[in-house]
Amino acid sequence: MLSRSTSIDVLFVNWRDVSHPEGGGSERYVHRMAEGLAGAGLTVELFCAAHDRAPAEEMLGGVRIVRRGGRLGVYPRALRHVLRTRPRLVVDVQNGLPFASPLVTRRPVVNLVHHVHREQWPIVFGRVGGAIGWWVESVLAPRIYRRSRYVTVSTATAEELAGLGIDRGRLSLVRNGVEPPLPVTSVRSAAPHLVVLGRLVPHKRVEHAIEVVARLRDRWPDLRLSVVGEGWWDAELRARAVALGVDDVVDFTGHVDEQAKHEELARAWVHLCPSVKEGWGLVVTEAGSHRVPTVGYRSAGGLNESVVDGVTGVLVDDLDGMVEAVDDLLANENRRLAMGKAAARHAASFHWPASVRGFAAALASAVRETRPAVRGSAVPVAVVQDVDRLVGRLDAVVGVEGGLDTDDSGDAERGPAAEGDEHGDQGLHSGTRFHGGRRRSVTVEGVAVIHNTDPLTITSQHA
C-alpha cells in the first residue's frame, strides 16, 4: 500500500469546496488552510464533489482542485484518489460522514471536524436514518481515526469530541481567521434591518429569524429581514414567510458574491444566527467586521466563542429569548452601537496567517507521531525521506524558532487583554485552557490550543 514517493505534500478531501452552491464557513476555512500551505511552498491538492458552477479541475490560490462525484459519490472516489496519488499527508474533512482515509493509506491522516452533528442527523434524515448517521459519526468514525490527530475550531467541539472518546492528546484547536472587510458603498439602513446568512437547510433554522420578524412587526412596522444564501430548504422558508404574513418584508437574495454579501452586512442593524449547531460561526465575525452584533443560541456550541455574550452580541436559550434580545437591541441604539464596535474589535483580532501556522503545527505533530511507525516498518527509503521532508517543510511554515511558545505555566496562553477591555476573563479574545477529565468526560486536558492572533501561542504540545 505504501510503495512509492508522491508529488502531493498535503491532500485535503472534503465533500464541498468554497465554490459549491452549498459551501459555507467550513469550506472557506479549508481553502484558507490549503492556500496558506501552498503559499509557503508545499504542493497542496483539494479533492471534493463536482458541481455545475466550476470545472472538474482547476488551480485556485496555488491549490489544485479536483472535483469528482456527487454528495455521496465523492466518498468512494476520494478513497480511490488517495490510493492513486499517495500523498504524503491526508486531511479528511469530516462533515458527519467520515472519508475513512486511514483504511487505504499508512501515511499520516489528520481529521478536521468543525462540529459534531448529534442534533442535525434526525432533523435531516429522520429518526431511523438519524440514528444510523449518529452511530457512524460517534462510534465508527472514532474507531477509524483512533491513531489520527484531530483538528477542530472551537473548545465546544473539542469537548464533544472528547465525549466521544477521542484521546485528548490527539486534539488540536485552530480557530478561524477573518477576511478583512471589503470596502462597501452601503450605509446602515435608516429603518430596522435584520440579516441571516448561510445555507438554506433545516438545521440552520432560518424559520426562527422569520418568526422574529413576524412577532416584532407590530412594534417595528418598518422592520425588514434579508435572507442571504441558497439551499434545498428555500421553498419551505418562503412558504413559512407567507404563512406568517411577512413575505412582503422578508427578502430572499439567493446566492450572492462576496461584494454583495458585505453590502448586505453593512446595511444590517443586527445579525441573527439561529443554527442548531455551529463549529465556530464565521459569519459572526464577518458581521462583526461591519460593526453588526449577533444574536444566536447558546446551545449552538461554537457561538459561545465567536460571540462574546453581552459584549459583541447576545446568546439566548430559545426563540422567545431571541425575540426579546432583538427587540432590545433595536430599541437601545447605544447598546447596539457599543456591541457593534466591540464586535469589530473582536473580529479584527483573528488572523488567517496565524491560523495557517497553527494548522501547520498540528500537521507537523501528526507527521511526527506517524514517523516512528514508518521508520520501523518495511517501507521504501523514498517514503521515509518523504516523511522527513514533510516535517521540515511544515516546521518552516510554523516558524518554530520564533513563532511558538510551548510554555504551559500559569495563564501564559491568555496574552494581554484587548485595549480598553474592562471585562477581564470575559474579554474579547481570551485564551482557552482545558482542565481535568477522563476519557469519555466532556472536559479536556492537554489539548494543543492554537490561537490565531499574533504572536502564536500553544498552551501544551503533545508531539
Automatic annotation (TrEMBL):
Give the domain of life. Bacteria
- One GO molecular function term? glycosyltransferase activity
Family that this chain belongs to: Belongs to the glycosyltransferase group 1 family. Glycosyltransferase 4 subfamily.
UniProt biased composition (Basic and acidic residues): 411-426
> Pfam families from the xrefs?
Glyco_transf_4, Glycos_transf_1
Native organism is Blastococcus haudaquaticus
Key words, A-Z: Glycosyltransferase, Transferase
> Which residue intervals define the domain Glycosyl transferase family in the entry?
193-345
| Every Glycosyltransferase subfamily 4-like N-terminal domain range | 24-179
Q: Which InterPro entries match?
A: Glyco_trans_1 (IPR001296), Glyco_trans_4-like_N (IPR028098)
What lineage does UniProt assign to this protein's organism? Bacteria, Bacillati, Actinomycetota, Actinomycetes, Geodermatophilales
The name this protein goes by in its record: Glycosyltransferase involved in cell wall bisynthesis
In residue numbers, the region (Disordered) covers 402-437
